[in-house]
Fold this sequence. Notes:
By secondary structure, the chain is mainly beta. It folds into 2 domains: 6-82, no CATH class; 94-394, TolB, C-terminal domain (Neuraminidase, 6 Propeller), CATH 2.120.10. 8% of the residues lie in helices and 38% in strands. The protein has helices at 6-12, 16-19, 77-83, 140-149, 241-244; strands at residues 20-22, 26-28, 31-33, 36-39, 71-74, 88-94, 103-108, 113-117, 135-139, 160-161, 171-178, 181-186, 195-199, 207-211, 221-228, 233-239, 256-260, 267-271, 277-282, 288-293, 306-312, 319-327, 336-338, 344-348, 351-355, 361-366, 373-376, 381-385, 389-394. Strands 1-4-5-26-25-24-23 form a 7-stranded mixed sheet. A hairpin with a 4-residue loop joins strand 27 and strand 28 (381-385). 47% of the residues are buried.
Amino acid sequence: MVFLTSGLVALLGLGLRSIVNVKSQDTVAGVASSQIVTIDTRKFNVLGIDGDFRTNASSQLFNPTNTTPPFFQAFDPAFLSVLGKNPSIRSIVSNPSFAFAHEAPIWLPSTDEVFFASNDGGPLGMSDINNNNQYAKISLKEVASSIQAAGGDSVNISVTKLDLPDTVQMTNGGTGPFRGALLLVNSGRGPIPPSIALVDPSNPQNTTIILDNFFGRQFNSLNDVKIHRQSGKIFFTDTFYGFLNEFRPSPLLPGQVYRFDPDTGDVRVVADGFNKPNGIALSQDGKSAFVTDTGTIGGTPTDPATIYKFDIDPTTQAFLNRKVFAFTDAGIPDGIQLDSKGNVYSGCADGTQVWNPEGKLIGKFFLGTLSANMIFAGKGRLVIMGETSIFFAEIAAEGFDLSFES
């Protein structure tokens, strides 16, 4: 989408090159890449009475240079530290007819594989009230060898489907490993309840359901999950997408965030007051939580498209002191991850957006298409779910260990 017209440029009295800097094999603050576009947001603070204002946050994306995706869109020099000296981003697997790469990404260090789920009930998801979605994996060793053989161009590696038992329906969130297993949260399908499952990555039929109700009531459709690494407790969101996508019955509970202790069986609500709670992330020190609210899904632009930050009570682990962390400019903030420096990453309508720890948007992994989640796969590797494609970014930033083994 082209956001700026030539008429607007003339209105501002500016040439395009004075608004944005498009770098081609050039150097910006010591960073060299043909895929970096730097933008001075001060040039867009006033668009004028005849400005080309956006009227749809999902279909009209902020790409004033009309650069072909994927590329890095930098709004602040801090993003160049995230990218490093010679960043790159490319598609590594694509299937335009199937949204195979939606959510629940988990990196398994022992095998260097990334696991993920297809879209559950959404467009191109090939799943509905009568059909489960797919959980699958790719090998990052194959990614590396394929990129080398292709001379750095985009590649199309193989995807391996996992054969999960019938108790696991419509997987949407995942993290871990948790005590050696993949930790999945599932939306459920029809009368089959939403659940939390532990899956043996080497033998997926060896799966254990560890929670499927709140004191006898089914959850609505579990969405995302993280492990509190300091305590081993599991935090997850429950929302209404199963009902909205017509594969779950009417909701019986509010959209909430829960804490589950897998050792004692205690399950409790730790945060409420959301429209549609979605992604969740915990800080590396376990003191803060981030939750995305995707209320604007459904076509109401005045509902939340917001990331909230909370303090985690050191005794009860309730989420306290709710505050707005960020509001996305493109679609909604879906899945969410943090890097080792405290920067916050979220999947949005244009790709993956990145905010610094204070909530300032510093840059984007601009895909030109929806991204629901992403996962760090060791130092300098970010794997981004792009629905019908998976993107692989080689950068400087790294995540932190999301597993729990004690």
